[in-house]
Amino acid sequence: MIELIEVGKTYETKDGSVIALENINLTIQNGEIFGIIGYSGAGKSTLIRLINLLERPSKGRLIVDNRDMLQLGERELRDARKQIGMIFQHFNLLWSRNVAQNIALPLELAGVHHKARDARVSELLALVGLEGRGKAYPSQLSGGQKQRVGIARALASRPKILLCDEATSALDPKTTESILQLLREINRKLGITIVIITHEMKVISSTCHRVAVLDKGIIVESGAVSEVFGHPKQEITREFVGKTGLPLEQIRKPKHVLLRAVFRSSTAQRAIITELARSEQLFGRIVQAETFGDDGGSIVLETGADNEAIQHAVAALRAKDVLIEVLNG
Ligand SMILES: Nc1ncnc2c1ncn2[C@@H]1O[C@H](COP(=O)(O)OP(=O)(O)OP(=O)(O)O)[C@@H](O)[C@H]1O
């Protein structure tokens, strides 16, 4: 069970404080598919990133499976995070690795023996409907297939919770439905709790058991999907119902470049961040961080730096033997 108790998040920026979330109270039961819907800027990303502590709340408590996440030491937190997988809008795959190698990455960094790894990868390929595609590279796959690889990779360490951050927003309607169908199957077969954030009503209505409507950092309505959308109490919920099927999010954030770096120790992780910050003023926010094994892991950084600066920093890090890739741009 995931419990957020009076959780708030305020970002301090050079232009002042930004209140992203205010007094969130939310309980997500084991085994359910829970949706969080809201317009751009409502606080959806912040909320889902609080669940695996990619963001730390400014106030309140977070309890996951009876563990008070904000009280955990570093090692306990790493263990707790292994129970939480995450998938993303832009898939976050390593382009230089084939499908099987992408899926195996968390296992490899956790030190799982190659035979056990191969066996697990075969199981996962079958689970996500990609049998026989293990040797393909991400560039040879469709968007839907890339997201299937993302799902397989997120499930490699057998997490109990899967967080989906706008996981179908880059896909066409037919592919969206096939990925949602896969998520429903995974939830049914494996009993995994799934949390979906989206701005698309149809994602919620076809897939989620319960939903929370988020507006300007506040949950304005929540409950069973049929209840919330069948008898909407708030104007914003009525808007979502009225516009079923339409992409509501008109205003997107400016495009930023995403860089993914894989590291084998926390010292290497610090070196990567320091290098990015120091050498080229690339400093950006960490949009994803995963830990694998004791000390290894990967981070995805979002940066608004120009192309030349990015290429320069990437070359500098590669010279230091850091596995780093530009994910978009
Ligand atoms: N790292 C940050 N620093 C400062 N402000 C932030 C940061 N991240 C988010 N915000 C602000 O917090 C608010 C909520 O943002 P958040 O990204 O959580 O919303 P969202 O509903 O996911 O929207 P979107 O779909 O556009 O990402 C916004 O006002 C946003 O500008």
UniProtKB/TrEMBL annotation:
Residues 2-241 form the ABC transporter domain. Transmembrane segments: none annotated. The keyword Ion transport does not apply. Keywords: Amino-acid transport, ATP-binding, Cell membrane, Membrane, Nucleotide-binding, Translocase, Transport. It comes from the Bacteria. One of its GO terms (molecular function) is ATP binding. This is D-methionine transport system ATP-binding protein. It comes from Sporolactobacillus spathodeae.
